C-alpha cells in the first residue's frame, strides 16, 4: 500500500541529509503536539525514520490516540515502496 502522507520523525538535520520526496518532517519529540493536525492528514499515513525505531514509537503513540497509521521503517524503504 502506497501512503498518501509520509511523516519522517527524524531530526531536521537528518531530514536535510535526505528524505522521501513530499514527506513531512515532524521530529519524534514533537508528535504529541500535532495529533489533531495528523488526524486531518490524507490517509493512509506512513511514518518513517532512519531504522524504524523512532517511527515505531510514533506509530504506537498515534495509534493509541486513534490515528490510523503504520510504521514504514527506514525512509529508504518507504522511498523504495513509493517509487516502485
- If strands are numbered along the chain, what order do they take across the biggest sheet? 2-1-3-4
Tell me roughly what share of residues is in helical segments: 25-40%
Distance between the termini: 11 Å
| Share in β-strands | 15-25%
Q: What Rg, in angstroms, do the CA atoms define?
A: 11 Å
Name of the CATH class? Alpha Beta
What general outline do the C-alpha atoms trace? globular
Number of strands: 4
Account of the protein in words:
By secondary structure, the protein is of the alpha/beta class. It has a single domain, classed as Rhodanese-like domain (Oxidized Rhodanese, domain 1, 3-Layer(aba) Sandwich), CATH 3.40.250.10. 37% of the residues lie in helices and 20% in strands. The chain contains four helices and four strands; from the N terminus they run βαβαβαβα. The protein has helices at residues 12-16, 35-39, 53-64, 75-83, and strands spanning 5-8, 24-25, 45-49, 69-74. It has a four-stranded parallel beta sheet. The mean pLDDT is 97.
Task: List the keywords.
4 helices; 4 strands; about 80 residues; Oxidized Rhodanese, domain 1; four-stranded parallel sheet
Task: Summarize this structure briefly.
The radius of gyration is 11 Å and the shape is globular. It is built from four helices and four strands. The chain is an alpha/beta fold.
Amino acid at each position: 500500500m502506497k501512503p498518501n502522507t509520509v511523516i519522517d520523525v527524524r531530526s531536521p538535520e537528518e531530514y536535510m541529509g535526505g528524505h522521501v520526496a513530499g514527506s513531512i518532517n515532524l521530529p519524534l519529540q514533537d508528535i504529541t503536539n500535532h495529533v489533531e493536525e495528523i488526524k486531518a492528514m490524507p490517509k493512509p499515513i506512513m511514518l518513517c525514520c532512519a531504522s524504524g525505531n523512532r517511527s515505531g514509537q510514533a506509530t504506537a503513540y498515534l495509534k493509541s490516540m486513534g490515528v490510523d497509521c503504520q510504521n514504514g521503517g527506514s525512509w529508504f524503504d518507504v522511498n523504495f515502496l513509493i517509487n516502485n
